[in-house]
Amino acid sequence: MFPERFSNLPPYAFPRLRALLDAHAPGGPVTHMSIGEPKHAFPAWVGEVLAANVSEFAKYPPNDGTPELRSAISGWIARRYGVTVDPDTQVMPLNGTREGLYNAAMALCPETKSGRQPTVLIPNPFYQVYAVATVSVNAEPVFVNATKETGHLPDYESLPAEVLDRAALAYVCSPANPQGAVADRDYWERLIALAEKHDFQILADECYSEIYRDTPPLGALQVAREMGADPERVVIFHSLSKRSNLPGLRSGFVAGGPESLARIKLLRSYAGAPLPLPIQRVSGKVWADEAHVVENRALYAEKFAMADRIFGNVPGYEPPQAGFFLWLPVEDGEAAALKLWQETGVRVLPGAYLSRETAEGNPGKGYIRVALVAPKDETEQGLTRIRDCLFGQ
Ligand SMILES: Cc1ncc(COP(=O)(O)O)c(C=O)c1O
Fold it and tell me: How much is the pTM?
């Protein structure tokens, strides 16, 4: 009576973590470094804008977003990437990127590709919605390991032509959760060329794009434009969750070619949930303001410096280029997370909870993911306890 296609989904990472840890007492003050929930302050005026527009909860919101919000988003894209997108046809606000990453697959993935079941290319480890979206559209997920050897980004060029010819979509996360790797120009150019050759779309999850050290990460849309690629080739996803510390606002956007956006909007008009109007109002103001983003980035820069100092002598430590996670090599991620909890009270996520078993093994197994979201002092204490407990320094 229930669908078979979801039956082999593993339990979600966080219930799995609770099952691993919660039967055991913490060995010290509990410090949460497992969930990537930003803890820095969001702009104080967010509450005022929301309050000023609260009466609009009485109205059904427009499906495609208000013109003001869509132009705030296209303005941000132009400033950030130097790319012009038509706010009427190439942008749609999202209830956070997770919703969009799921629904884009529903709207864009064909039933067949080259006369056969389509494949969807997914980095491994990965943000879990990519896999469930793939299964939902009855496509074959192809997990491509993103390891130290591949610069922590998936090498889709290494796939057999047969898999690439059937590819309908390829998810890419840059900056990458969990590894903090950033796709450079060469990576994007090669991937876009591959997508042009095999005629698949790239779904670029760029929700960590504003948390970087010095150089703003390149955007996929920007590179596709510069290359003169098919305008439908790349669809990008951005969020206020990380950029502006508003994960509970549920606000992001999708942008790309007009045909793709028309399909995404059509599906939303039937099945989706547009953002409530007061949230659209405040989101427009948040996209238009950059000062709080600069401040936020400076706070993360302090944490990157702190992590580099604390783990600098740990063999195998790779300073993240961007995002807010450390991806620390250990012998066994589950054993390390349990030891850390029992001996220090620090909660981290075993890497394997974010990755799948493949013929070459599970690329997350020998890692833990550590979120740098807590206030600075708490983060420093947590990182020091991790180093002392797991790396004995
Ligand atoms: C890689 C990645 N993509 C997407 C999301 C979803 O973020 P949101 O739906 O809050 O925009 C997250 C959240 O943790 C993430 O880590």
Answer: 0.97
